[in-house]
Target: GTP cyclohydrolase 1
Amino acid sequence: MNKEKEFEEAVTKVLELLGEDPQREGLLKTPARVAKALKFLTEGYQQDPEEILNQALFSTSNDEMVLVRDIEFYSMCEHHMLPIIGRAHVAYIPDGKVVGLSKIPRIVNVYARRLQIQEQMTEQIADAILSTIKPKGVAVVVHARHMCMEMRGVQKINSTTVSSALRGLFKSDERTRNEFYNLINTPTPSNF
Ligand SMILES: Nc1nc2c(ncn2[C@@H]2O[C@H](COP(=O)(O)OP(=O)(O)OP(=O)(O)O)[C@@H](O)[C@H]2O)c(=O)[nH]1
Ligand SMILES: [Zn+2]
Model:
């Protein structure tokens, strides 16, 4: 049996266990849809973050902070396979190399589209940038809502979880760290 069929049969089984009739009209295509959706939501397993970053590395003499903030992402927690909905802020201080800007949200997606815990995802993003761009420092802050804490379980709909990973100058130099936190907390101008 091919993998797709196997996947669809597993979803059909889940529907049956939920007391549903997988043969009713509305559910006929559901196993195939679920398989396709889950494949998309976990496509990060098939992607290599270093390869993505290496596609666009440019030499530079600039050593000022580069920050891409408010990168929205959707992930799934590895405990309940329920959505994690969040925003990531990613900054680094170049040391001879900058990366194509679009590659930063791409790296966020690579790690978000796996089964995750937020703290691990935050560190993975920082470490991929650190090992590839080799900057003077990297900072990643992630704000997220966990549906396993909202739709079920403790049911706290207004709580967000904040995690951070600081490397190099962001860890050792308070001024750099403060500049980063000020920049991510500055509201986007209303006429932007
Ligand atoms: N640290 C961390 N924990 C997470 C994350 N996503 C979900 N969790 C937690 O993982 C834990 C799993 O705990 P268990 O007690 O095994 O699971 P549970 O019985 O479903 O727990 P409740 O959610 O408290 O009902 C829960 O406390 C979740 O809130 C995450 O990204 N980071
Ligand atoms: Zn969870």
